[in-house]
Prior knowledge:
2 copies of one chain form a homodimer.
Chain A: H1 3-6, H2 19-26, E1 30-34, E2 37-40, H3 42-61, E3 65-66, E4 72-74, H4 75-80, H5 83-86, E5 91-94, E6 100-103, H6 108-114, E7 127-136, E8 151-161, H7 164-184, E9 190-195, E10 202-209, E11 215-219, E12 225-228, E13 246-260, H8 262-266, E14 270-272, E15 278-280, E16 282-289, H9 290-300, E17 318-322, H10 328-347, E18 352-354, H11 361-371, E19 375-379, H12 381-385, E20 388-393, E21 399-403, H13 404-411
Parallel strand pairs in A: 3-7, 9-12, 17-18, 17-19
Antiparallel strand pairs in A: 1-2, 4-6, 5-6, 7-8, 8-16, 9-10, 10-13, 11-12, 11-13, 13-16, 14-15, 19-20, 20-21
Helix pairs in contact in A: 2-9, 3-7, 3-9
Amino acid sequence: MKFQDLKIKTKKQVSEETKGLSFLVKANYIERLTSGVYNYLPLGYRVIKKIEKVVKEEMDRIGGQEILMAALHPKSLWEKTGRWESFDALFKVQSKYDQWYALGPTHEEVVTPLAKNFIFSYKDLPFYLYQIQTKFRDEPRPKGGLLRTKEFIMKDLYSFHADEKDLDKYYEKVKKAYFRIFKRCRLKAILVEAPGGTFSPYSHEFQVLTKNGEDEIRYCSKCLIGYNEELKKDIKKCPVCQKELLKEKAAEVGNIFKLKEKYSKALDLKFIDKNNKTRYVMMGCYGIGISRILAVISEVLSDEKGLVFPLELAPFKFVIVPLFTGQKKIDSLIKKKGEEIYEFLLENKKEVLFDDREVSAGEKFFDSDLLGISYRIVISEKNIKKNFLEIKGRQSGKIKLIKINAFKNILTKNDFLF
Amino acid sequence: MKFQDLKIKTKKQVSEETKGLSFLVKANYIERLTSGVYNYLPLGYRVIKKIEKVVKEEMDRIGGQEILMAALHPKSLWEKTGRWESFDALFKVQSKYDQWYALGPTHEEVVTPLAKNFIFSYKDLPFYLYQIQTKFRDEPRPKGGLLRTKEFIMKDLYSFHADEKDLDKYYEKVKKAYFRIFKRCRLKAILVEAPGGTFSPYSHEFQVLTKNGEDEIRYCSKCLIGYNEELKKDIKKCPVCQKELLKEKAAEVGNIFKLKEKYSKALDLKFIDKNNKTRYVMMGCYGIGISRILAVISEVLSDEKGLVFPLELAPFKFVIVPLFTGQKKIDSLIKKKGEEIYEFLLENKKEVLFDDREVSAGEKFFDSDLLGISYRIVISEKNIKKNFLEIKGRQSGKIKLIKINAFKNILTKNDFLF
């Protein structure tokens, strides 16, 4: 894509709560519509879709089938579980013509009756459904940009089992899938015990250390396990390695719950077991905040210059910056070489931006760092004479000269340079 | 995918308003949560994502950049355009803590201020943004399954121009893109004039003939143009070819509007023109109902046996049905051959279902027709002895015997058989 077609104008001055949020706003990734409500602009949405792709791949890998459930939930379903009154952050909306609805903040009330389409006997179990969807919560104090919002993008997976043993087994499988997801997002996730609600003594949260997080956790820096301070436990040493636990601020990026029979009982989801007896289905639920991952990445991976992404999530992998000299003949050569590299990358289906703006090289460099594009390719007079490209890795900060042929050779096989 | 992992149970008896809706419910594509609100189950959502892909490709082709706007819109924005009161189907929701919101039924109120991030001077124009998103409308009488709902998936594109001439040019470009989209969905779209609201004498709708549609149109069957009867025009002959116009029921699948300066004035979206004068941006907006396309396809492409899709949209391209004989040795050969074909298709990244259910061949045939899978591959004793596959095309209804090697040879190049 040509930079001018992207139309984005990076911002110089913004006053946001946190470093990550400042970069997201400066880089035109997101825009605040009102307190706790954000719009995703083209670059921000590109990254969101890449995060979604990673999450989907890992959900598919553990047998998840993707669906899309409604956001408007009839009040009657939420009354059956008692949450119409007890769920504090529930947005309630009334139709002029018929009923009251809850705006889905989570989907147990919908997925449990939905599963009746699929589950009749033990032969139909286990079974896994997930969706990626916009959720709504009437937060009293939205803050931290995308960290706590009234509207957010979430992946929610629900599992259905014949017995608790099978639920436990899948719960461990989801843990592993979650660690794979956070690793692909280059986030160091810590698995902590957290309050489990009324149906289970504990749930687990995946927390990432950041001083801008809302939670406080106590954790082992070696084993990456711990507990949420909300639990008010008095454990000072790691139960695995005996190392002293540390206390730090963190942001939750995922959580997993054993729902057991809580919702299947309330919403009457049963199956016929091997002995021909009717039983309630065992359930688990597993959330990941998609927009929250973007927020956390922007807090913990950014450096002083701007956003940094793992290669898989960067909005563009390459930006080509031609360094013009003002001399017509030389500039025409530079342009030609830049376009050759651009075409080569496009042909090889690489996401590349050609910075065709009439602004200074300094501004182009500044923006490519701010936007978090993985590799910056500078086309200069000196280097093209020797058939070299000057390439800077956004993450490593390293600058290398690479022969054009060698560059092309690597890129037909791999996206990763250094 | 193995059919048993899909877990779907097709329904035999349903009582729905229309043929298409009956098939969607029987085939476990969708589920009604409450009046006018649907959940998309795994197969239905597969098709929805394929429709989205077609639409995205055509939007990208005409320069659209994808974004995602919020569904919660502050009341203040809707008051600025006067639509807080005048937009009948607006869902209004109040936060316990701060303000009232509209649940976005369309996004002019949000995209117009959003465009201020990008548009400063004439050099920034034209500019195109689109999104695919869940919309909310408080319909008094939801009906026709996915045709008129309180919650639906829509693609909305907004264009920004320096002058009306440029808007007109792009409007024609969008028309062509829309015809390409409907053609890829195998829908015969008729372009009709429709009421344009207060800002433009006309808008255009793309209508598909179906007796279950909500609109009545008068159209030329040769030129595929016409007008919506709502316009109360008294034109009986085609203005192009003079052919007598026909009157029929139809369902709207897309609409395009020239908004001109209506929203840029109300929401103060200006730019500096070539003569250094400040002017309002000219706007257009262009909608396509994604979930409605699924509804219309199910009405107009279905036959008596079930759903039929263009190859690009089918939930699976192939279903493999092994015909077991009850004789162990032969059945083991049949299974082996079926799995060989299955692996071959998977390796070639074809979407294939292996019908591993323990049900009769008749039930497997019945379901593969109902679900609208493009090609059914029967593995029988007779045919594998001769190295043949019996393949039935869902759309053509034709059954052909194809040599296994020839089949593999075609499939490495192409998805289309006959």
